[in-house]
Amino acid sequence: MLRILILCTHNSARSQMGEGLLRHLAAQHGLEAEVHSAGTEATFVKDGARQAMQEIGIDIRAHTSKTLFDLPDPWNFDYVITVCDSAAERCPAYPARTTKLHYPFTDPSGGSQDRWNTVRDQMKQQLEKFILALKHGTEIPATYENSPEVTLS
């Protein structure tokens, strides 16, 4: 079984949505994966993330914000995906067998629910490409170029 970690700064928004999306997409595509999220520091899961995910039928209400050190076997992941530049810069060194990817999504915090939903949809598209590449043994997208900045409404 693959182990995947999605890492952000506060484990409150993008990494939480990513964890929910990766679990859902892996199950949907028949890929056995153990998915975790963490932050370089722990805070709380934001309501905008919960609502954005609930709107597409993925329940993350039970998720809690955590650090890498709160996870089981934190140094044993096949893939570590950072979703913000700060986490990418502060990501610890992993064994050579761990593939690190950087998908820097716009921070939806402080924006309207539409902004949260836009970031969620961008993440879903990118993470589905990642899951399908794993499933089919094709090249994994190495990075993600942010779409133009989402405007706050």
TrEMBL record:
What are the recorded Gene Ontology BP terms?
response to arsenic-containing substance
Keyword terms: Arsenical resistance
Q: Does the keyword Zinc-finger apply?
A: no
Q: Could you tell me which SMART domains the record lists for this protein?
A: LMWPc (SM00226)
List the InterPro entries: Ptyr_pPase, Ptyr_pPase_sf
Q: Which residues form the Phosphotyrosine protein phosphatase I domain?
A: 2-133
> Which domain of life does the protein's organism represent?
Bacteria
The protein's name is: Arsenate reductase
Organism, by scientific name, is Deinococcus cellulosilyticus (strain DSM 18568 / NBRC 106333 / KACC 11606 / 5516J-15)
